[in-house]
Amino acid sequence: MYIDPHIHVTSRTTDDYQAMQKAGIRAIIEPAFWLGQPRTKIGSFQDYFNSLIGWERFRASQFGIKHYCTIGLNSKEANNEALAEEVMELLPLYVCKEGVVAIGEIGYDDQTKAEDKYYRLQLDLAKEVNQPVMIHTPHRDKKRGTTKSMDVSEEHGLDPSMVVVDHNNEETVKEVLDRGYWAAFTIYPHTKMGSERMVEIIRQYGAERIIVDSAADWGISDPLAVPKTAKLMKEKGISEELIHLACYQNALSAYGQSGQMKETDWLNPEPIDQRKKLSGNTILRGGQTPQIDGDSSSDIVEN
Ligand SMILES: [Zn+2]
Q1: Which end of the chain is more exposed for a tag (fewer CB within 10 A), N or C?
Q2: How many CB atoms within 10 Å of residue 66?
Q3: pTM > 0.85
């Protein structure tokens, strides 16, 4: 069993869901993020947040995957201050909803003044509602941005055990672990942080407080990055115990602190019945045979 605690399934296909389920992924966390094109109206945020707790959760359940999400104003769009103000008013309505396991992903992109302002406001919100935080660290000037993310979090009184710092690499991991944070690693195919490098990090640091995720989205990314990395770890002689921590248990321990994520949620899943509807809509298209657990005639044809 695996958990992918950072994946933007809104931009993925049903084939991905089927492949993920088959590869052993039982639960995922979808952080609220940037959609590739800046939003211009508050309603777009509202509909997006609603889809994270509504349709996407339903869609995942139809493929046997338990879906959770995080809610927040991403760093890129924090730079549209007029809109950011409105989003800040919206957030309290969502952060305590069922299945919301953290405030995130928040932090720095270009490390601007506006990003800093809304990062701080959201840290205060997280503290107020006692929710974990998922930090997106910048891809440019990463080392400095990561240090700053933690400095500011501490300034606002957050306990490092409630904060997951994501998108780490060899340059940032030591400081993040030394300061008591959860250190998440996004496995990007071909570039940056690949599975091979992840294996070396586990060799060097062990797996305590280390989390592996795919951050798969609309870009070149791999929704199977977690199971694939686990497989490589095994081939390279990493123990089952460490693999279990990095690819399952640590994510559950970190985000379980929200009180919204429990192993029993997916150990005793509701049977899949693709005839189900959400607000009148199913995942089925004209003439498709629904998968219904316990009904062998309904098996989906494999791609
Ligand atoms: Zn992301």
Answers
A1: C
A2: 22
A3: yes
Report the alpha-carbon distance of residue 195 to residue 225 in Å, rounded.
8
Q: Which two tokens stand for residue 41?
A: 């109206």
Give the strand pairing for 100-107 and 133-136. parallel
| CA–CA separation, 211 and 176 (whole Å) | 12
CA of 106 to the centre of ligand 1 (A): 10
CA of 296 to the centre of ligand 1 (A): 37
Q: Return residues with CB closer than 5 A to ligand 1 (ion).
A: 33, 215
Residue with tokens 């609603």: 50
Instruction: Compute, in angstroms, the gap from residue 6 CA to the centroid of ligand 1.
Output: 6
Please list the helix, strand and coil fractions of the chain in percent, rounded to the nearest 5, in that order. 45, 15, 40
Distance, CA 126 to ligand 1 centroid (Å)? 18
Q: What percent of the chain has pLDDT over 70?
A: 96
Strand partners, 163: 133
Distance 294 CA to ligand 1 centre (A): 36
Closest-CA residue to 138 (of 175, 165, 174, 104): 165
Query: Are the C-beta atoms of 111 and 148 separated by less than 8 Å?
Result: yes
